[in-house]
Amino acid sequence: MPLADVPPEDFGNPAPEPRQVFAIGLNYANHAAEALLAVPEDLTVFTKFASSLAGPYGTVTLPPGTVDWEDRGLGGRARGNHRPRRLAHTRGQGMESRRRDHHRAGPVRTHHAVDTSDMVFPVPQIIARLSKVTPLFPGDVIFTGTRPGEGVGRVPQRFLAPGDELVTYVRGVGQMRHRMQASS
Fold first, then answer.
1. Are 139 and 17 in contact (CB under 8 A)?
2. Are strands 96-103 and 106-110 parallel, antiparallel or unpaired?
């Protein structure tokens, strides 16, 4: 069946069983500044559970606080790679996140529209550092950092709420849509 004939709701998580899910802390200089934190001198890495990943459409049950993401998936195995080839391993794009609701300003509010040039540690450097300490496998996920514009950095603070729809898109690639719901 051609991809164009697959209904959008039939798409699932593109990395349904990643071996590893990494996240990079304070990797956008402007986000560190809005959080009143110093830009790190070295890569700050933490992990997430694979169960925190979702497909391109669906409902997200909100825990207390905020819901954020950045993603890139690896298309090939990487271990101690040399810089010129590292980007060849990436599959995915940086995402722009929008929160859709009905405020005085209109039905769409852009929260992230940042270029990756603001990254403290670019993707090739992240892959190089991670692959020096552990093998990276196809399907592994690396969240490259939180962009500026988070609810915690706003005055007044503003977080996702039940009923909000978060639309994430990459021009020329497509979009993801997630409706927020309260936890029971």
1. yes
2. antiparallel
Beta strands in the chain (DSSP E): 21-24, 45-47, 57-62, 73-74, 90-91, 96-103, 106-110, 141-143, 165-170, 174-182
CB–CB of 110/95 below 8 Å?
no
Domain 3-94+113-153 classified CATH 3.10.450.50? no
**pTM for the structure as a whole:** 0.70
The burial of 78, by beta-carbon neighbours within 10 Å (0-12 exposed, 13-18 middle, 19 or more buried), is given as: buried
Instruction: Give Dmax (Cα) for the chain.
Output: 51
The one-letter amino acid code at 65 reads G
H-helix segments, the chain: 29-34, 123-133
pLDDT tens digit at each of 184 positions of the chain? 566 677 777 777 777 788 999 999 999 998 888 888 999 999 999 998 888 787 888 888 887 655 543 333 344 455 554 444 444 445 544 443 444 443 333 345 555 566 678 899 999 999 999 999 999 998 898 988 887 777 767 778 777 788 988 887 767 777 788 888 988 7
How far apart, in whole angstroms, are the C-alpha atoms of residue 108 and residue 138?
A: 35
